[in-house]
Amino acid sequence: MISTKGRYALRVMLDLAGQPAGEAIKLRDVAERQQISVKYLEQIIAVLNKAGMVRSIRGPQGGYMLSRKPADYTVGAILRLTEGDLAPVSCVSSSYPECERQNQCATVVVWEKMYDAINNVIDNITLADLQQYGKEKK
Question: 89 with 113: CB under 8 angstroms?
Fold first, then answer.
């Protein structure tokens, strides 16, 4: 399952993507629109900022903005940043040592196909795509 941190990071990035280009947005405004506590949002934005996904602007007109265009961010990149590896089981994750049973395990094919499907979906949807999906829902 994707944690609230991952889900909220995606919502924050989508919120910033919806703002006019070059305009810094205050964190409390994002928090209010997304109904996320400012404290929790500060933790999430720190991770996004450190990774270079957002830029912070200091001063009275300061705030946060995307570092790149919405089409340059995949859902996969955002979720992996906040969630880590999204493998359904450790035996198909590169973050864990290879399972000693992997060569004779019949179920590993299920986990590999599931992992491939997850990655295929999240790596082929961008923030720009999500913006378009949002417009179509209205």
Answer: no
3 state SS of 20: coil
Q: For 57-77, what is the mean pLDDT?
A: 93
- C-alpha span between 5 and 122 (Å, rounded): 16
Residue 34 DSSP class:
H
- 54 beta partners: 66
pTM of the model: 0.90
CA 27 to CA 120: how far, in whole Å?
A: 32
Rg (Cα) of the chain, in Å, rounded?
18
Report how far residue 54's alpha carbon sits from residue 19's, in angstroms, rounded to the nearest whole number: 13
